[in-house]
Amino acid sequence: MTTIKNNNNKRRVIEQSSRAILLLCALVSIAAVIAITLYIINQGIPFFSKVSLKEFLFSFNWEPSAKENPSYGIGAFILASFEVVILAIVIALPIGLSTAIFLSEFAKGKLSVVIKNTIELLAGIPSIIYGLFGIAIIVPAVRNTFGGNGYSLLSASIILSIMILPTIINISEVSIKSVPDSLRQASIAMGATKWQTIYKVVIPSAVNGIVASIILALGRAIGETTAVLLVGGNSAVFAKTPIDMGRTLTMNIITDMSYAEGTHLSALFATAMLLFLFILFLNFIVVYISSKSRLGQSE
Amino acid sequence: MNDSLFKVTDLDLWYGDHQALNKINMEIQKNTINAFIGPSGCGKSTFLRVLDRMNDLIDSVTIEGEVLFEGKNIYNDMDILELRRRVGMVFQKPNPFPMSIFDNVAYGPKLYKKYKKSDLYDKVESALKQAALWDEVKDRLNSSALGLSGGQQQRLCLARTLAVNPDVVLMDEPTSALDPISTAKIEELMIEIKKDYTIIIVTHNMQQASRVSDVTSFFLIDDQRRGYLVESGETGEIFLNPKDKRTEDYISGKFG
Amino acid sequence: MNRKNTNKIALTLIQGLSILTILILALILSYLVYRGLRSNNLNERQVIDEVNLTLPFDVYSNKYSKVEELDYFTFKKIVEGKIYSLRRVTSVNRDIKLYIDPSLIDYLSNYFLVDESDLLDSSITQFDSTTIADDKTLLNDIKENEGAIVITTANTKLKGLNKVEVSDNVLVVNSKVTELYGNKRIGNLDEEEVEKLLDGQYKSWGELDGPPVDVHLVDSLDKVESVDGAIMVVDATSYQRAVDSQANIDLLKVFHKVSKRNLTWDYLVSQSEDEGKYGGISSIIINTLIMVLLTVLIATPVSVAGAIYLVEYAKKGRVSTIIKTGIDLLAAVPSIIFGLFGLLVFVQFFNFGFSMISGVLTLSLMILPTILRTSEEAIRSVSPALKEASRGLGATKIETIIKIVIPGASRGITTGIILAIGRALGETAALIFTIGSSTSIASNLKSSSRVLAQHIYLIITEGGSIDEAFASALVLIVLVLIINSITKIIMRRK
Ligand SMILES: Nc1ncnc2c1ncn2[C@@H]1O[C@H](COP(=O)(O)OP(=O)(O)OP(=O)(O)O)[C@@H](O)[C@H]1O
Ligand SMILES: [Mg+2]
To answer: What's the predicted TM-score (pTM) here?
Structure first.
């Protein structure tokens, strides 16, 4: 009997301490987010004592290694980043939305299984491989179709559009599926065609989820580095058209990081800070949308 | 027969601010079979779960009143793990673990002590024998418990409970998911093990209550009171000449 | 009815675009497999693709060197000692070691137009072709020396070595042909064009972007020099002699299509050399596996523990919201930012340097949300009845979790781990600033190490061979596909 008593005391100690350990583990994520934020800010903030925020954001002049009057404007990169991701969404949305509609409204049987596996595989392909594929196929295709040397913001957008397809499809599909069947039946019963039902009833009812999918895709796209770096040309000069070579925020960070020092280095962290800010902002929009529509963020 | 095992005084229980039990007073004697009857939602399960503190798993529960087990307050003077060992529970739906038959029964004993292989085997064997399952499973102790029939699974759950040598076995509608033959087997078992254990069973089956139990308690819920005990007494008395009109109505099937 | 047509068109379009996703994937995968297995390159060559079978000597090379053919000009430089490493020939990183039968010296010096004394250089091993087949020590020496190139008299049979074919025919033209005309100049011809040219199918050089001069097939070098637009095939020795005597002739270069196996077994199993520029990727594959293994070992306990806390302990409210927000945000952080964080914290602050451990810790944070979310779902779906049964027997909460909940959720947890492995395998940006780039096998946690995805990145950005990038990419994608199928199999068994 006493052994059982002692044993029970030991069990109770384990019970208490395990709870604390589990809590610690659960807090790792938030701790990491906070640490990441603090470290990036800590490295980026000193930059603004040397260069004004206005110059940083709006100047198109990036000459950080110039001996005299180095300049640290990332305006061109901000614009390029947005240009690239918006173009990517424009390309991906028709395909992604169609696929989501197809999967939720029509697909039964083999084809839908194949498409689902396709999406999973697309999501699993590493960015570096997308980049390599881009160099070998997309860049020459852009060169032959639009001229220029092919390394361009457009090439980056095309690669990104493929990469964000799974995000758009998966999240849109969930929200389209959750549109109640009664709505569809009501519409069909009034004599609407399937297509009319889709674009007048189903899509409007699922619009929150679709918007959320687009924003999450934006977040993924704007943070993508390797793939766009390989095909985007990485020229620090402002790209006047999508056919020109350009540099996005992420490309700017990764390119100079290996050798930058002093103000140049903190300019890169300031760039990262801006990028991080964009992404936090996009995430809060998604949280807001999904709390409004109670659509879980099921990525 | 004045060997009180449980003594419950003025027990109130709330789920959040929703009261489920109201001023319950009850004594439970050793080596008896006690049946709890009453309409759905009147708090039978809740009360049963008070007795081995399973309600502690639900955060919103608050309890007032006193529950004594062998004279000790189960909330203050007793080790909860020890209480749960001595007060076992068999649930409504058979819920064997997704393990082998042997491991299911050995699960409890292994929590408390390190056993030698042979001792553990003896324990498992005797528990399965008590639950009248030994002959049916002795050749496949290592196959999955999920392969047993519903009735066998429920007897396995009983064996699992008995394996830790409890004093009390709580059973919440243990046969409601079983066919009549399996039900009869379980009822037989209860009577058989009564000499070693105190049994408390919640049931909606009046015949079952009258067949197996020594003492019957009738719970009720109505507009005035939530989850209260109407009367409690020897099963013969309760079924043949209940003191309370409400008990009579319930037993004769007038409501519930 | 118009409405019906719109309906039909719209639905067809929807289906078409959905199928497009399949085509995109098929294109990517098939192209990767194709480029991974074969390389098709246009090599610029000075000789035309015709093997000289009448030479009085045979050439053999060590199998490892991959030398299977030599053109006259490369061979000449090797013999002269101007090319001393196989790097410039087959990109195998070995110094060349020449073995020459001295009875050939007279011929070779005339053939390559080099001094006999050069061929008697002390670094060149001499041997007798008639007895070499029986000279075990010499043969072993050759087989062990990976840069060996052996010149024997014709018809000497040597086993276990590559027979090297020598091409020494060149296309020479009158210098008018290669002159700049307007803003155009004749470019390299491909083999098909050469064939047509020698067949007389082109009348004027203009048809080949050259000057508007007629094509004349001639049969002596004198004529090539004197007739505008003249062309002839001649042996390289004669061409070289003419050039050395300032003849006014030019050589037309030819594109030679080389189609060969790209990813080979050798590439998989051999060590990489010279910071990944040569050799294979065995050490890189091993590093990749070490990296993935360590990452999973670190991330899994933390994520599963976090998931358990979230499901079994956290009450709905502040703490649980904070934890969930943390997970969502961490999942949204782009890998480049993880890379910077890893650089600041693990590489610099903890002073781990560019090392395996820095990379692994960075990646562990990155894949944490993946495992946590999948585990959370799996843990949530463990039946409450089982947990109650366990608690009813007197098990504590943590005992119940360890004995009932985790085994019950193990399939879901495994799925999460495998998904995370997939992510870790393909990650580049987070590793570039953290894990280092050394191609040798990581001997300890602090050694700089290179993994597969990052290797591909470095090949491309440092201007290595694109074929090699594709070979490595094929290996990577195969690993990813395997991981993917395992996930599928586990999930299907549900
Ligand atoms: N976990 C819980 N949280 C909140 N309320 C609960 C919970 N469990 C039970 N209740 C409420 O407590 C009251 C009593 O429930 P209980 O399950 O004890 O009734 P019962 O007599 O066992 O009914 P039945 O015969 O249907 O099993 C009911 O009103 C029920 O809704
Ligand atoms: Mg009940």
So the answer is: 0.81
